[in-house]
Amino acid sequence: MRIFKEEQRFNQPWIIVLLIITTVPYIIIIYKAFLKNKMSLFHCIIAIGFILLVIGFIFVIKLKTRIDEIGIHYQFYPMHLKMRTIPWKDIKYAQTRTYNALLEYGGWGLKNGGFFAKKGKAINIKGNIGIQLILIDNKKLLIGTQKKLDADNVIGRYFHKH
Question: What is the DSSP annotation of 133-159?
Answer without folding.
Answer: EEETTS-EEEEE-S-HHHHHHHHHHHH
